Amino acid sequence: MRNLQMVDLKSQYQKIKSEVDAGISQVLESAAFINGPDVQHFAKELAAYLGVKHVIPCANGTDALQIALMALGLKPGDEVITASYTYIATVEVVALLRLKPVFVDVDADTFTMNIDAVKNAITPNTKAIIPVHLYGQSANMEPLLALAKEYNIPVIEDNAQAIGGTYTFSNGETVKTGTMGIVGCTSFFPSKNLGCYGDGGAMFTNDDELAEKLKMVANHGQKERYYHEVVGVNSRLDTIQAVVLRAKLKHLDEYCAARSAVADYYDAAFSVNPNIVTPYRAPYSYHVFHQYTLQLKNVSRDEVQKKLAEKGIPSMIYYPVPCHKQNMLKEFGSDQYQLPVTDMLQDCVISLPIHTEFKEEDLAFITQNFLKIINQLS
User: Fold this and answer.
1) CB 215 within 8 A of CB 56
2) 49 and 68 in a common domain
3) Is the pLDDT of residue 1 over 70?
4) Is the pTM value of this prediction over 0.85?
5) Is residue 2's pLDDT more than 80?
6) Which one of 126, 173, 211, 354 is most buried, by most CB atoms within 10 A?
7) Considering only 109-113, 137-141, 193-197, 331-335, which range has the smallest mean pLDDT?
8) In this predicted model, what pLDDT tens digit does every residue of 215-249 receive, in sequence order?
9) Could you give the 3-state DSSP secondary structure of residue 44?
């Protein structure tokens, strides 16, 4: 049995090696390391793939969220509604800009924000809502967008884990995740479904005016060099990373389909076990399985992880401490929140390896041993 990994990036690279290597070599020869032609080509190609007017690349997904909030002109003290059950970056940028994070609970099946909870959290000070498309599945955007429109609140989509995914509205229209709010944000961290070989990120929007503002904020607040109109940051996608992303974008649908096939294999193996709750696939969402996250019932998760490791099977807990329980956010009163579903999930979820390069023997080894461990411990 070969060495199992949560994500096998090396094998994935081998399949696109010639194109990536040639592209990187060309960048090295041209010395166009910053804002080279490949950055602009990638932005146009990703915009075409997503069906949006504008893609603004930046240095990472966290920057993308921060720049979006800055470009929307939010002021210290303004409230931003989001889920606590997410990676800290979603909330970190809110705190960094001295905005006030307002946490809502998630649905137990989709792990995405509960729409009724959002409605109950809206106040006159609510200036933005950040839904998180978690683990590769879209939040339920149709009712959320209707609610946001009713209260005139901009929606910023955190699409870092779901690029390539889709959402289907009740009228049958299907769109890419990250393209429904006023702005969508993503990360190109190497392990993402569309990942580079370093850090990278991007913002998407159909709003021409906002696109210009996003570009300015990401480039020191300037439209014309040395003329700084707003306070900005320095956040760029470098050219070598754009080369990698251009090569991978051609295969993104293939990558998402491969991940979905792994999830199908896992589902078939685990769905009849009463101690395992397999991931729910909402009818409105094409789940692209950035993570394959199970819920364990009546069994010790720590023991499961320990025994998996003994078999050479990696696993991860996303996320053992939700945002509202993080010390860094106590000043915002975050520890006062009662989020029962979030609290439940932090204690019972476990993620198994999922990537594009699995062989059936790998999956058989993982599923057989996982089931054996669950049965031993239950």
Assistant:
1) yes
2) yes
3) no
4) yes
5) no
6) 354
7) 331-335
8) 999 999 999 999 999 999 999 999 999 999 999 99
9) helix
How many Å from the N-terminal Cα to the C-terminal Cα in the chain? 27
DSSP letter at 330 equals: G
Question: Considering the domain boundaries, does residue 286 fall inside one?
Answer: yes
Domain boundary among 249, 265, 288: 249
| Contact (Cβ atoms closer than 8 angstroms) between residue 202 and residue 187 | no
The answer on 80 and 224 residing in a single domain is: yes
**Between 61-71 and 89-96, two packed helices, what is the crossing angle to 10 degrees?**
40
Please identify which residue in the block is written with the tokens 């979820």. Answer: 349
Give the C-alpha distances (Å, rounded to integers) separating 256 from 20, 261, 289, 355.
20, 9, 7, 9
Token pair recorded at residue 125: 């000070």
Collect all residues with Cβ–Cβ distance below 8 Å to 366 and sequence separation of at least 6: 4, 313, 352, 353
Q: 1, 11, 13, 8: which is closest to 197 by C-alpha?
A: 13
Q: How far apart are CA 209 and CA 262, in angstroms?
A: 41
Q: β-strands 166-168, 285-286: how paired?
A: antiparallel
The domain in which residue 264 lies consists of: 252-377
Among 347, 324, 287, 7, residue whose Cα is nearest residue 135: 287
Question: C-alpha angle with apex 289: 329 to 178, nearest 5 degrees?
Answer: 65
Measured between alpha carbons, how far is 133 from 159 in angstroms, rounded to an integer?
A: 6
